[in-house]
Amino acid sequence: MKIIIVGAGEVGFHIARRLSEEGHDVSLIDKDPKQIKRVAENLDVHALLGSGTSPRALNDAGINDADMMVAATDSDETNLMVCLMIKTLNQYLLKVARVRNEEYFQEGELFSKDLLGIDHVINPQSEMVNTIQSIMEIPGASEVIDFVEGRVKLIGFFVTEDSPFVGRKLLSFNELKGRVLVGAIVRGDQVLIPHGEDVILAGDLVYVVTRNTELSETLEFLDIKQKASRRVIIVGGGQTGAALAKKMDRAKISVKIIEKESAKCAELSEILEHVIVINGDGTDKRLLEEENIGDVDFLVAVTGDEANNILMSLLAKGLGAKKTVTRVSKLSYIPLMSTIGIDTVVSPRLSAVRAILQHIRPGKIISVAPLKGELAEAIEAEALETSDIVNVPLSKVRIPKGAIIGAIIRDDEIIIPRGDSVIRPKDHLIIFALQEVASKLEKLLTVKLEYF
């Protein structure tokens, strides 16, 4: 595919890198010379200095014969304007726009195809709030991702030194057969798509996929705590903090929100009914102690300053907070967080990358969830009648090394697959894959050569 990306910030840069590594023809436009220099020095893409709203820059990028455009700048208005410009230059192009301001979503007609011609709108703030809410539902997990409208859950958890699983081969877990599948193991900087002979070690981050209906039994077996959050402190009253506080408010969870700016505190007090709004600095140890931080189930640090978010989370853990969720924007920081004691990381940019990837992949990709930053992915896809993966036992399917099918969803049935399982057309699949085999997996999920 020929893809044009407007905006070479964190989101645009990482999407361009992923697509380039997968063999796509990528052009990246940005008006900042420093960003373009960074792209030119690190990526095998066509980097252009210019504005994404400039017809000349878009034509230089090859807009007339492009298949897709992703507007991923940090400005909602620029992204919307880019889509409007491209509507007149290439009406057949698939357009994806990153939009963060919630006000735009209140105007339903704004995103109609007739007006701006946008095919998919990505709201990273909303994605991130949903992620935090899912994590709060299972406090013992480090990551929770829903598939098939929550009917299948992907749970990531760290294996402690005293865990009964340490030193055991996966094939020894007879109790889990047909109920749970281990889809990925993160060990340091390495991601493993495991097989039966692989052994679990202390410190591993293990991802398992299970049915939502068997969640309690699975969590009990894995010794993962499932307990409703009763007390939450949110630090940061921006869009993300306010949206999360609203959700917690409706769920009648005891929530306090700490915000530095007094004017913003006044706004929050008006829109939040039961949430206690505190005007203060979340990095102030005395303030956290006064608010009994040692008794909270979650401290959620979602200010716009990622260094402060990290500091607040470490401080809260040191003062006894049971769990922390930390907003980190710089994607290169994410793999390092667990090594310094950060429980769970959320990122608006990673949420945007996750949402955009599903619209770029060929075949019927429904959602894509990067694991451990971007080293591997959990993919929800629909099995096409024309693909090589259907109507034969899985043991005879040439699934690329570095990929594994974690679940098959057929109507109301959720199957944890075995070698003799057969995928049928229109089944939904949950697939774990290393990033380097993504292109091979795409070929498997698309069209048989003989179909033509």
Automatic annotation (TrEMBL):
InterPro entries: K_uptake_TrkA (IPR006036), NAD(P)-bd_dom_sf (IPR036291), RCK_C (IPR006037), RCK_C_sf (IPR036721), RCK_N (IPR003148), Trk_Ktr_HKT_K-transport (IPR050721)
Domain RCK C-terminal: 142-224, 366-447
MF (Gene Ontology): potassium ion transmembrane transporter activity
Keywords of this entry: Ion transport, NAD, Potassium, Potassium transport, Transport
Keyword Transport assigned: yes
Keyword Cell wall biogenesis/degradation set for record: no
Domain RCK N-terminal: 1-122, 229-346
Pfam families reported in the protein's UniProt record: TrkA_C, TrkA_N
Superkingdom of origin organism: Bacteria
One Gene Ontology cellular component annotation held by this UniProt entry: plasma membrane
NCBIfam families named among the record's database cross-references: PRK09496.1-2, PRK09496.1-4, PRK09496.3-2, PRK09496.3-4
Protein name: Trk system potassium uptake protein TrkA
Organism: Candidatus Desulfacyla euxinica
